[in-house]
Amino acid sequence: MLDNHKELFELSKKIIPGGVHSPVRGFKGLPMAPRFFERAEGAYITDVAGKDYIDFCMSFGPLILGHRDRDVEQELRHALERGWSYGACEPYSLKLAQFLVDRLPFIDQIRFVNSGTEAVMTAIRLARGYTKRSKIIKFNGCYHGHVDSMLIKAGSGLAGSADASSAGVPKGVSDDTLIVELNDIDALKACFEEHKDEIAGVFIEPLPANNGLLIQDNEYLHAVRDLCTKEKALLVFDEVISGFRVAFGGMAKVTGIKPDLVTYGKIIGGGLPVGAIGGPEHIMSELAPVGPVYQAGTLSANPLAMVGGLATLSKLSVASYDVLEANTKRIADIFRRWLAEYSDGKYANTSVIQYGSLFWMHPKTDKELKAIHEIPSNLSEAFGPMFGELLEKGIYIAPNAWEVGFASMAHDDAVIAELEKRLWS
Ligand SMILES: Cc1ncc(COP(=O)(O)O)c(C=O)c1O
Fold first, then answer.
1. For the whole model, what pTM was predicted?
2. Contact between residue 187 and residue 140 where contact means Cβ atoms under 8 Å apart
3. Domain with 116 in it: what CATH number?
4. Within this chain, do residues 88 and 172 fall inside the same structural domain, yes or no?
5. pLDDT value, residue 172
6. Which residues are catalytic?
7. What gap in Å lies between CA 212 and CA 61, rounded to an integer?
8. Ligand 1 atom nearest residue 273's Cα
């Protein structure tokens, strides 16, 4: 039974809502049971039946070095031998904070939390506390975790649902979240005009990657920055996915834009639970215990997570990003070719867009996709059969048409050759 995915899933469903601890894991809308994985190594992940897959989900992004990078593992083992939670001041978070503040010119201070959601939640409260305004702007299709005020027109596990929102979010909360379309600066201007002096912050994924991959123009992002400055609203870059992934400094570095606050998750913990919020001292010092904006956490800055994060980030050089990008280009090309050629062109209407070490398979369109309403409505129809076929071939992508694919440093020449072999097998 322990190697039978269907039986494991049936058992899970009895004692865990929907059988999963995060919705996308449940293979919703797909004809097969979710795979249960129990081991991973480099670019490969192995299920309980012993079948291995080339992993392009990579835990949804944190594992930029691949699974079980030996240096990270060694650091974690050393830390583990000394204890794994102190609930007190410790040197591990100090080291990671120093490492980051030294390298990210747009932040003076950083606060560690346990997830991307927590980071965003804190950023919302901080933006409101700092500006003494209550409304926030988010963009249609951007996902910022499952904090109430952001579960409105969100992406990720909510992408594609008829009502892209959640039950349990009081109207009073959602009324303070204003939604604007991506890539439409006039809409943002109009929103600011309608809510003059009410907007605390504009939250954006500068590389929207939770509703497909909707790459924004540099000029647009700069115009968003300028508007926020003019209207005295904080610009919050949610770099939970893009931070340390598209460059060490994330999209802030790539675009040359200085956000007022930045939120991180995923890679910053190297695969252990960490989120963070960073910004200049005059804003960050509004946080407790210095300032009046409360924030706390029993396990915040957990030593293992701090060590995992630092060990991961220390291995990322400028050259790493060149390698990641070059290899992901090759991976995207191979998928593109396979989609065009495979089985008399049965997937020929699907293409691949790639940015850095991210890629996304989507229905072919005439123009670049920049806003959620431009995504063809047949997205998930084409996805289901393709996902199943890839799974059979030992290739694992995230089990949802709107999720992006992630490559890692472990997706090297040998893995790329193996990908080609498996695709055409
Ligand atoms: C841009 C963005 N923000 C926030 C989050 C929430 O992070 P977490 O799942 O760690 O709570 C995610 C998760 O995918 C994300 O992609």
1. 0.96
2. no
3. 3.40.640.10
4. yes
5. 87
6. 143, 238, 266
7. 14
8. 10
Instruction: Look at residues 314, 330, 361 and tell me which one is the last residue of a structural domain.
Output: 314
Q: What is the DSSP letter of 107?
A: -
Q: Is 240 in the pocket of ligand 1 (CB under 6 A)?
A: yes
Distance 299 CA to ligand 1 centre (A): 18
Q: What's the average model confidence in pLDDT over 360-388?
A: 92
3-state secondary structure 392-413: HCCEECCCCCCCCEECCCCCCH
Which residue of 60, 143, 299 sits with most ligand 1 atoms within 8 Å of its CB, as the best mutation to test the pocket? 143
Is there a single domain that holds both residue 148 and residue 225? yes
CB 309 near ligand 1, within 6 Å: no
Phi/psi of residue 38, nearest 5 degrees: -130, -5
155 falls in which pLDDT band (50, 70, 90)?
low
pLDDT tens per residue, range 160-174: 443 446 899 888 888
Which residue is closest in CA terms to ligand 1's atom 8? Answer: 116
Whether ligand 1 lies within 6 angstroms of the CB of 238 is answered as yes
Query: What does the pLDDT look like over 198-229, one tens digit per residue?
Result: 999 999 999 999 999 999 999 999 999 999 99
Whether residues 321 and 303 fall in one domain:
no
Whether 120 lines ligand 1, by a CB cut-off of 6 Å, is yes
Give percent above pLDDT 70 in the chain: 97
Claim to verify: residue 102 and residue 245 sit in the same structural domain? yes
Residue 41: domain span: 5-68+317-423
Distance of CA 56 to the CA centre of its chain: 14
Atom number, ligand 1, closest to the C-alpha of residue 22:
9
**Which atom belonging to ligand 1 lies closest to the Cα atom of 238?**
1
Domain count of the chain?
2
Task: Establish whether residue 145 lines the binding site of ligand 1, counting it when its CB lies within 6 angstroms of any ligand atom.
Answer: yes
**pLDDT tens, residue by residue, 112-134:** 999 999 999 999 999 999 999 99
Q: What angle do CA 405, 304, 85 make, to 5 degrees?
A: 135
